[in-house]
Write a structure and sequence with these properties.
single chain, mainly alpha, 6 helices, about 0% strand, flat, disordered N terminus
């Protein structure tokens, strides 16, 4: 694994968000975290689209619940996708990624509860809880598919 000399360099150029989003769907991003986030994103879009047939408030509540789950997870995956050769540096990346994910989740929840009216709480939290189950279901599904092919 090559070591990126810019991993701890604060003078590194800023990342391109569009490139990061494109990487999420590229064949190079086959890490388990990216596969789970892709599945969550697809499920959020499908659930939001299906809710549009019934109620617009339910649809955007589902979408916002999905974003509260997906955005912090994507932040954490991006932070943990840094190459490192030292255990102490890797632990630092993990701690900072987890703290960033917690702060981002808190900020998104506060912003949504303060700024969004009306909000269908059942669909909002249903999306959050449902998407968090993907951390179990996606690896379980992949292990069953792998077992069938071997």
């Amino acid at each position: 694994m090559p070591i990126d000399p810019r991993a701890n360099d604060s003078s590194a150029p800023p990342t391109n968000v569009a490139k990061d989003i494109g990487r999420l769907f590229s064949s190079r991003s086959n890490a388990p975290a990216y596969r789970i986030i892709r599945a969550q994103l697809i499920a959020t879009v499908l659930a939001t689209a299906s809710c549009l047939f019934f109620d617009a408030v339910a649809a955007y509540s589902t979408l916002l619940g999905g974003l509260v789950c997906i955005v912090p997870a994507g932040f954490m995956a991006k932070r943990l996708d840094r190459p490192t050769s030292k255990a102490r540096t890797a632990l630092g990346h993990l701690v900072m990624a987890e703290l960033g994910k917690l702060a981002l989740t808190t900020a998104l929840l506060i912003a949504i509860f303060v700024l969004v009216r009306p909000l269908n709480i059942v669909f909002f939290f249903g999306a959050i809880v449902g998407l968090h189950t993907f951390y179990i279901w996606v690896p379980l599904y992949e292990s069953r598919v792998t077992d069938r092919t071997t």
